[in-house]
From TrEMBL:
This is Calcium-binding protein. GO terms for molecular function: calcium ion binding; toxin activity. Coiled coil: none annotated. The keyword Cytoplasm does not apply. It comes from Roseicyclus persicicus. Transmembrane segments: none annotated.
Amino acid sequence: MSTQTLTFDTTATAMQMAETMFGAGVEVVSASYTGDARSSAIYQNGAAAGDVVPADSGVILSTGLATNFAGPNDSGSTGTNTAGVNGDKILNAVAGVPTYDAAILECSFIPTGDTLTMQLTFGSEEYLEWVNAGFNDAVAITVNGQPATLTIGDGEISIDNINTTSNANLFRDNADGSFSTEMDGITVILTVKAPVIPGQVNTLRIAIADAGDSIYDSNLLIVADSIQTALIANDDIVSVSALGTTTVNLLANDTVTGLDGVEITRINDIPVQVGDTITLVTGETIRLLDGGRIEITGGTAEALNTLSYTIASDDGTTDTGFVTIGTSPVDGTAGHDKIFVGFTDAQGNIVDGADGLSDVIHGYGGNDNIRAGDGDDILHGGDGNDMLDGGAGADMMYGGTGNDVYFIDDLGDVVSEAGGNGHDIVKSDHSHALGQGFEELWLNEVATALEAIGNAADNKLVGNGFDNRIEGGDGRDQLYGGGGDDILDGGAGNDRIDGEAGADLLLGGLGDDKMDGGTGDDRLEGGAGRDVLIGGAGQDILVGGTGNDVLYGNGDGDTFVFALGDGQDVVKGFDFATDRLVLSGVDAGDISVRAWGAGMLIEYGDAGDRIVLSQTDFATFDMGAIVFDTLIL
């Protein structure tokens, strides 16, 4: 198909570009653009250019002319010295050298969720001849003044971080002109995520500039409607043996806010359906299974590689996440081995220990993947970002410094982390309580219900498909139930709790919590604090507790429970025809009801308690939907 049908509207205003980029769960307040008018545009008919354009429409920011992105690749050195911004302080700091020709788009917005995500691709004429040569065109994305970076490699969107030897699965080489773009190389769809403050005005700044000189253009292509807070594809970490297979549910830790039909639609930017298999540049094969699962077959060599996956809901909302695959060799020598990095056994493998005996393995420096196999082993990761798997037997695993991942498959396994050094993850086949120094705990998909207990830090706890009990403890925790009928207790701190599938019990405890029941007939109890309760699909019971809470129903026959002293609460989505309102300890003669804006106001008790039904027409009021009870359900 002719590339001429890919169009660029360089007359688009900043507000038009912002409204194109932002999607579900976000209200745009204002926008401004600084740079050469020819360096920014709204692109359309992206499908006409093939897979090189991330979506049919979106926004492009360029260090040259936006229209020069279009193919074919007639030159290996396209560049334009524009009237863009020179010497921007933020971009200079990212690049480490002076920057030129910057295009900067700044927006303010009000989100409904607490995590902002965006999808984009990066293309550059600097590929591949200038990789690691000091000419990294600078990309700087900040949210509320804080850098928002990739979760892979060094975090930068740059030619040094994504190329044929670094994060190779995410790169497309266009030196031979096989893709319909003038750029010599381009990435697959990438994702950047950042925390935001719901209900308040937040800021976003997206900037790109030439670095070191004003030649060799680079571009950012942002997917339309992709900057949103409703659907979040969170990253996954998986370990697989060389030529072995493993299965992981990528949707298990993803965040869905009232969206239906979420499924995986692309793997590494390739459209897929259940049953499809793709082979990565790095040698691993990925097969899409049903229910958001993928089957991974490892390559032949020890490696730590990353791929991307994209999810979509029925209403068209999409997001992208990363999957990091650690591949480990598995054959050891006979005897009681003490194996160091650089040790070579008779089979020619490097760090392993699957001989069935008790091994001592030291990773020392570097990012190590250590799998010990059978026996009561001792594993030392040392410095670097390590993956430690003791295998069968009662193993002791010490991560050392860096961002480490531990795999527990025996009740006798012991993990120990140098507290405060890095972001460390435990993935367990058994119930587990996080010790000091760990940040995340994931329950593996074994055929049993398990317990996951956090520590005093800010934890992320993820359940499996069975009936789990998950306790956050102190700190600002994130709890995900997965499948099954789970009990999720946030404890103290401002927590995020997602029941996901199943009939779950969500307990906010102390702090200002955000709770989402997901699918199933759930019970949500906010406890103390200013909480947000989202029932999701199913017939849910929502108990706000003390503090000024916001409760969301969906008309499926939900029950909203309030008591004296609960404060000033807001209920959204209440339907008198299907839902119930329970006022515990309140007599029918002690309430007053009146219209309140587009909704209605219910006042009760003597302490100023009230409930605003913000989206419920006063004309639909039915006293029969209110239950007066002396006990909370």
